[in-house]
Write a structure and sequence with these properties.
The longest helix is centred in the middle third of the chain and has 13 residues, at 49-61. The chain has a single domain (5-136), classed as Nucleoside Triphosphate Pyrophosphohydrolase (Alpha-Beta Complex). It starts with a strand and ends with a helix. Helix content is 19%, strand content 34%. A hairpin with an 8-residue loop joins strand 5 (71-79) and strand 6 (88-99). Strands 1, 2, 3, 4, 5, 6 and 7 form a 7-stranded mixed beta sheet that branches. It has helices at residues 49-61, 119-122, 128-136, and strands spanning 5-14, 19-23, 36-37, 39-42, 71-79, 88-99, 110-114. The protein has 137 residues and is α+β, with helices and mostly antiparallel strands.
């Protein structure tokens, strides 16, 4: 069995209380193409999930958020809900609040700004991990 996929990601919230989610590119060879997901990504060798989330989010939104602003929302160790098959996943999902929307430049996918009460409307478009995180939030 292959080692678990390890990721760090976050639910981002702007200063108005809107959720800032990532609309994934709809291209082959990426996980959950076209879905609305969380910003974040895969851990590098020896990297903690928190360090990964901090690094990936800065890369993806072009805005540095210090690690102490990341609040742990959930930890998952088990079946990888985002791939078909028998893969496993180790991930930590954080919440980052009060981001200035006008200062963000999205470098991967597209930005989906969603009011919290609109989450049920987009439920069918959410990646499994985003659905889990938003239900927990």
């Amino acid at each position: 069995m292959s080692p678990p996929r390890r990721i760090g990601c976050a639910v981002l919230i702007d200063t108005s209380g809107n959720l800032l989610l990532q609309q994934r590119d709809d291209i082959p060879n990426i996980l959950q193409p076209g879905k609305i997901s969380l910003f974040g990504g895969h851990c590098e060798d020896g990297e903690t999930c928190l360090a990964c989330a901090v690094r990936e989010i800065e890369e993806e939104i072009s805005y540095a958020v210090p690690a102490e602003k990341f609040e742990l929302l959930l930890r998952h160790e088990g079946a990888d809900m985002e791939i078909d098959g028998d893969g496993s996943l180790e991930c930590e999902v954080y919440v980052v609040r009060d981001l200035p929307l006008d200062k963000l430049v999205i470098t991967e996918g597209a930005l989906a700004v969603v009011a919290p009460n609109d989450v049920p409307r987009i439920d069918g478009k959410l990646s499994p991990l985003a659905r889990l995180a938003l239900a927990r939030l």
